[in-house]
Amino acid sequence: MRNCCKILCSLIVLALLLVHGVTAENPYRYITWKITYGDIYPLGVKQQGILINGQFPGPQIDAVTNDNLIINVYNYLKEPFLISWNGIQQRRNSWQDGVYGTNCPILPGNNFTYVLQVKDQIGSYFYFPSFLFHKAAGGFGGIRIWSRPKIPVPFSPPAGDFTVLVGDWFKANHYVLRRTLESGHSLPSPDGLLINGRGWNGYTFTVDPGRTYRFRISNVGLTASINFRIQGHKMKLVEVEGSHTLQSTYDALDIHLGQSYSVLVTADQPAQDYYIVSSSRFTSPVLTTTSILHYSNSYRGVSGPVPGGPTTQIDWSLNQARSIRWNLTASGPRPNPQGSYHYGKINTSHTIILANSAPVINGKQRYAVNSVSYVPPDTPLKLADYFNIPGVFYLNSIPDNPTYSGAYLQTSVMAANFRDFVEIVFQNWEDTVQSWHIDGYSFFVVGMDGGQWTASSRARYNLRDAVARSSVQVYPKSWTAVYMALDNVGMWNIRSENWARQYLGQQLYLRVYSPANSWRDEAPIPKNALLCGRARGRHTRPLRH
Ligand SMILES: *[C@@H]1O[C@H](CO)[C@@H](O)[C@H](O)[C@H]1NC(C)=O
Ligand SMILES: *[C@@H]1O[C@H](CO)[C@@H](O)[C@H](O)[C@H]1NC(C)=O
Ligand SMILES: *[C@@H]1O[C@H](CO)[C@@H](O)[C@H](O)[C@H]1NC(C)=O
């Protein structure tokens, strides 16, 4: 009897290890965040900001590949709140994604503990508040995922590692912006740009002469693409959203909404201070702001004109985008070279074409994908799916190809099968740059060009060294095509990173489904899951195994 029990117990332990083992042996990092309102003055006027532990921007998250992050978020705002993780894949675990399609918001005075694992990832990302247009008030911060000690990094360790959060900014409070959008208007032009929460020369990066530094730049803004450059210095691109790139040198880099880039900069110029410049792209007027690159041995402040950005428009940017490629021999999060994954040799099982538009529906400005303008349901989709609550959403409530017919409001969810390998084409007929993000995944940017995408566009795809990333731009009257392995079960948000467009419907959810219904493919519902809407009062005890 006892032996039998022992065997049984060992089998149970073994089974638990198989399910949770990967998580169990990796370090845990415990983080507590208090979300409050606070006065901030980024453009010289007092505003109500959203602070994390008293800070704007919020604290940096540092992790090593495969670390577990236990982030307990206390909401002291007067409104429900959610944090999401731009580019963090949360494998098998859309329960932690922190968007309203997967999570109930944290009510005022309450807390929620996110349990994330940065599985098989390296690189530069950011977090942001995803609900109620809070992003316009702050609440964002940088995420750095460092390589494990024995994994080679394709450049020498830099002397310093700076997070640079750039983006456009409005002086208006987020309630006011939200009311503008809800009453059916588009947003006005932003009032300025910020670098790490500060306006003109408000932030200083100090470097020692002769040494090389890593700058991790993310566009955390609401509406504008930006161009980034450093007076008198070259930037060597080394990483884009977790991919090590060919190390090309740039004078200026276009960074679209939601994107993150790492560059190396050597302090090889005469000792003085230099402008670090960010300016808006494809806008009129062009907004500009600067911060300071201060040489530690410099006694001279910044001087000379602020260097201008590229004056040619789309072609310059498109060519630059095409030059950003995967370094096939460099390691990523694992020791083997990135190029050992031959994405270009895999047959796609399915092509999804997503066309954005800006329709007026019921007299109000909306934004849509394939004629569907997303409306949030009363219950998070992930919970409705899990508890089988009928009527919250319908699968394939959005076509997988544009119909170009009249636009309508719908809670749009597209069905997809686990382990399919899909081609997604973003087709943009509007005259503005689009920026798309897919949660839970990174994808290969195989092509982008002007005009209409057709099957023959595939002849010019980069099937060898396209970069893998999670946010990509689509130029005006152009298309961008990506390949994506559906290796992550869950309910995943596909959205415009233009925050007004996202808020007014340019988003959808992709439900990646595995019939196996197994914990190997998808983590069980967390014990602390918040339940709201029609899921309120349900039991979160796991129903399957
Ligand atoms: C709120 O914080 C407490 C104390 O750390 C924790 O035990 C609890 O799980 C948190 N609540 C949620 C819903 O995560
Ligand atoms: C690619 O990565 C390797 C490290 O594996 C590095 O030596 C090489 O310089 C990189 N190539 C380019 C073009 O950046
Ligand atoms: C991909 O498709 C081609 C043509 O249909 C076929 O010859 C090839 O075997 C397929 N490759 C794989 C890996 O399935």
TrEMBL record:
Keyword annotations of the record: Glycoprotein, Signal
Q: Which family does it belong to?
A: Belongs to the multicopper oxidase family.
**Name of the molecule in the record:** Cu-oxidase domain-containing protein/Cu-oxidase_2 domain-containing protein/Cu-oxidase_3 domain-containing protein
Q: Which residues form the Plastocyanin-like domain?
A: 35-148, 161-298, 379-515
The record's section on InterPro entries has: Cu-oxidase-like_N (IPR011707), Cu-oxidase_2nd (IPR001117), Cu-oxidase_C (IPR011706), Cu-oxidase_fam (IPR045087), Cupredoxin (IPR008972), CuRO_1_AAO-like (IPR034273), CuRO_3_AO-like (IPR034275)
Q: Organism's domain of life?
A: Eukaryota
Q: Which PANTHER family match?
A: L-ASCORBATE OXIDASE HOMOLOG ISOFORM X1, MULTI-COPPER OXIDASE
Keyword Cell division assigned to the entry: answer is no
Annotated signal peptide: 1-24
MF terms in GO: copper ion binding; oxidoreductase activity
Q: Which CDD domains match?
A: CuRO_1_AAO_like_1 (cd13846), CuRO_3_AAO_like_1 (cd13894)
